[in-house]
């Protein structure tokens, strides 16, 4: 089922999410819905807060980046209760966007490499190290479960320049090709 994506301005996007347990209700259906929602919106990642759930869960399918990085071919993963344990390497800029902040893309600098522990959809524990675009996509989605948006990493001047566009998103004054839930839309 395609779920509505929570738009910029909703307080749930600013909350630090909570861990879940193995008996989380209907987890496999939730994961299927998250992948379907992400694909419908042409995203490469989707975090649970973006669909209104303040839980430490995100999904990634970085296959669209496989042309730029062959290691991303078939890179489809579920991250449950993840914890980034280290970030290292040079920071490098890359143009990022977000399904919760449509029509805005900005160059964001992130560390080249990270190590993360997480559980997969079968509750198998992993500790893995990623670099490049894989690390970047993970960092972006991880920020969501920490209550951080990519726009938080912009300079104060750039944030000021984007303020009217961000306000328009929170008021639902934009058109997107996927379902969204706007926090401040009139007539809600």
CATH class: Alpha Beta
The CATH architecture? Alpha-Beta Complex
Number of strands: 7
Report strand order across the widest sheet.
2-3-4-5-6
- How big a fraction of the residues is strand? 25-35%
Major sheet characteristics: 5 strands, antiparallel
Tally of contiguous helical segments: 3
CATH fold-type name: Peptide Deformylase
Span of the ends, CA to CA: 22 Å
Judged by helices, strands and strand pairing, the structural class is alpha+beta
Count of distinct structural domains: 1
Shape: globular
Ranges with pLDDT <50 over ≥5 residues? none
Element order, helices and strands? EHEEEEEHHE
Characterize this entry briefly:
Its EC number is 3.5.1.88. The chain is an alpha+beta fold and about 190 residues long.
Q: What would you note in describing this structure?
A:
- With 188 residues, the protein is of the alpha+beta class.
- It has one domain (5-181): Alpha-Beta Complex (Peptide Deformylase), CATH 3.90.45.
- It has helices at 27-40, 132-145, 156-170; strands at 5-6, 45-47, 57-61, 76-98, 101-119, 125-131, 180-181.
- The strands form two sheets. A five-stranded antiparallel sheet has the order 2-3-4-5-6, with helices on both faces.
- Strand 5 and strand 6 (125-131) form a beta hairpin.
- The longest helix has 15 residues, at 156-170.
- One of its GO terms (molecular function) is metal ion binding.
- Belongs to the polypeptide deformylase family.
- It catalyses: N-terminal N-formyl-L-methionyl-[peptide] + H2O = N-terminal L-methionyl-[peptide] + formate.
